What we know:
The chain is α+β, with helices and mostly antiparallel strands. The chain has helices at about 25-40, 65-80, 90-95, 120-125, 195-205, 215-225, 235-250, 280-290, and strands at about 55, 65, 85-90, 110-115, 130-135, 140-150, 155-160, 160-165, 170, 180-185, 210, 230, 255, 270-275. The chain is built from eight helices and 14 strands. Strand 8 and strand 9 (about 170) form a beta hairpin. It is an enzyme of class 3 (hydrolase).
Amino acid sequence: MSDEVGAVPGDAAGAYGAPGGVDDELLAAVEDVIRAVVAAEVTPRWRRLDDGDIAHKSGPYDLVTTADRLAEERLTEELTALLPGSVVVGEEAVSADSGVLDRLGGNDPVWVVDPVDGTAAFVRGEDGFATLVALVHGGQPLASWTYAPQRGLFATARRGRGAHLDGERLRTATPAAGEPLRLTTSNPVYRTGYERDVLTRLDASGAVCTPCTCAGLAYLDVARGAIDGVAFFWEAPWDHAAGLLLATEAGGVSRTASGAPFSIPGGNELPFTLARDEATARRVTDLMAAGR
């Protein structure tokens, strides 16, 4: 793909520092901001949360911590300072005001932020959590940053310019004949009866399915060839924007139940997959659609 894929129309294109959307300087500056915010607000609270640091939002499984809130506040302030005129769609801001999602349909560049993806794992003291940031314009992700601090992993992607993990180029897996599909799926605990039936069909097909605890790390696993794909039933943009670009730039393909690629602003026909290649994406969606 050309570097021009990520360009935005008119004078706004110059705001990103490069015709392709995000130059090296901005890519590195955002990484520095993320590392600093996580070091200040997230990692010091890992395994040190008390009862007053943890709350429930919409249900017993929907957790938020002091780390989520403070990290998102800091990221909002510092990312918009890096790119004047930009706005933020963050998980905690949307939880407080769903109208914030409308920014994805506007003309401003949007930082899509998940301050702690995998909050439940973070609360349990596990290392499977990440901070996710994507820069989106016109509904299209231009760049993404995925940081798993306790695993020492930092992945970036730029639209049309590839995906990298700690400086090394990422590629999705090459299909191996006779090997079962390795998938990360929506956790059945959170799903409706119909959705659990879909997941049962994937299991029955012989796929090796692992419930998701951190979407960002699942997408990273696709991008680096550790698994073949994901199968998800929800479309919260902060969970998916960064990882979709990362895995797509590594060679992956997204496909919703309608056959269309996943849309960050929403309106997708669910479930959807992001898989290592077009053939695998089609296979996963066909398996999920069987019996509809």
